[in-house]
Design a protein that fits this description.
By secondary structure, this protein is mainly α. The chain has a domain of 29 residues. The protein is 39% helix and 0% strand. The radius of gyration is 23 Å and the shape is flat. The chain starts with 16 loop residues before the first helix and ends in an 8-residue tail after the last helix.
Length: 69
């Protein structure tokens, strides 16, 4: 009887070597010099946090227009 270890479930998509090559090529073409990608990760698509959303509301509501002539 052999015990099998299940594969770990990855919650984040993985960045492949091919994707890193494509990104470094695009950045090198844009900057005109060789680049080295030291770290790459996906960011979450959970949307803005309530703190950042409330901060934006506060800033945008502070832009009042003066109607005096």
């Amino acid at each position: 009887m052999e015990a099998t270890i299940p594969e770990p479930i990855q919650s984040e998509p993985q960045i492949t070597e091919e994707l890193l090559v494509i990104m470094s090529s695009a950045i090198a073409a844009y900057l005109g010099k060789n680049v080295r990608i030291r770290r790459a990760r996906f960011i979450s698509n959970q949307g803005p946090s309530s703190w950042s959303q409330q901060g934006r509301v506060s800033i945008q509501s502070s832009h009042t227009f003066s109607t005096t002539k």
